[in-house]
Design brief:
The structure holds two protein chains of two kinds. Chain A has no helices and eleven strands. Chain A is an all-beta fold. Chain A has a single domain, classed as Sandwich (Immunoglobulin-like), CATH 2.60.40.10. In chain A, a hairpin with a 5-residue loop joins β4 and β5. Chain B is an all-beta fold. Chain B is built from no helices and ten strands. In chain B, strands 2, 4, 5, 8, 9 and 10 form a six-stranded mixed β-sheet that branches. Chain B has a four-stranded antiparallel β-sheet with strand order 1-3-7-6, with no helix packed on it. The interface between A and B is medium-sized, with 22 and 26 residues.
């Protein structure tokens, strides 16, 4: 059974600071997603990472994937209050031959304070 | 429409009643997914439809849950004899055919179900 673990579960950070959220998963896959969720809202797609060494950046967020370590990171640079949300990583089992479905991590609730 | 559309957005039902939740995927998307999000369980996969293939029902929690997708487009998730533990947000998502590189899976706003 695929397990996806995120840490930290909760992150309070000051504006302007940098931090990294970690996503570990337990089985072979080379397709990983990052989503953002605001309170009471649905999931907004941030990144799709498709291969070992993939790196994608959008604004103050940068995501990377190391399939050998089964690890993805979401790096936040110079945080601003608008980034406050819950961030989820999700792993797609398609690579293993099973039907395409996402297994989500527990989520990291990010709170950016002034 | 431009995005995945779900209805109702909110539903309060009495324990034991049946409910139907509807999902209208993004036009042209062949894959459709149902997930459930609850405080205790996080985000859970329920069922997945891809084109005309048999759906992957491996995530459905009990035989009270069923889903169908008519004409390869709209999907309905049905929960029979609802229980309080069914209270959750039911999220529908759609994408192009899995396996195509760069696929993004788009989620709807969800149907918030409360069983009282």
């Amino acid at each position: 059974e695929l397990k996806v673990e995120q840490n930290p579960l909760f992150l309070s950070m000051q504006e302007g600071k940098n931090y990294t959220i970690y996503c570990n998963y337990s089985t072979t896959s080379d397709r990983l997603y990052w989503y953002r969720q605001d309170p009471g809202k649905s999931l907004e797609s941030l990144f799709v990472l498709l291969s070992n060494g993939a790196v994608k950046q959008e604004g103050r967020l940068m995501a990377s994937l190391d399939t050998k370590a089964r690890l993805s990171t979401l790096h936040i640079t110079a945080a601003v209050h608008d980034l406050s949300a819950t961030y989820f990583c999700a792993v797609d089992e398609t690579y293993t031959g099973t039907a395409s479905k996402l297994t989500f991590g527990t989520g990291t609730r990010l709170q950016v304070t002034l | 429409g431009a995005g995945v559309s779900q209805s109702p957005s909110n539903k309060v039902t009495e324990k034991g009643k049946d409910v139907e939740l509807r999902c209208d995927p993004i036009s042209g998307h062949t894959a459709l997914y149902w997930y459930r999000q609850s405080l205790g369980q996080g985000l859970e996969f329920l069922i997945y439809f891809q084109g005309n293939s048999a759906p992957d029902k491996s995530g459905l929690p009990s035989d009270r849950f069923s889903a169908e997708r008519t004409g390869g487009s709209v999907s309905t998730l049905t929960i029979q004899r609802t229980q309080q533990e069914d209270s959750a947000v039911y999220l529908c998502a759609s994408s192009h055919s899995p396996g195509d590189s760069g696929n993004t899976i788009y989620f709807g706003e969800g149907s918030w179900l409360t069983v009282v």
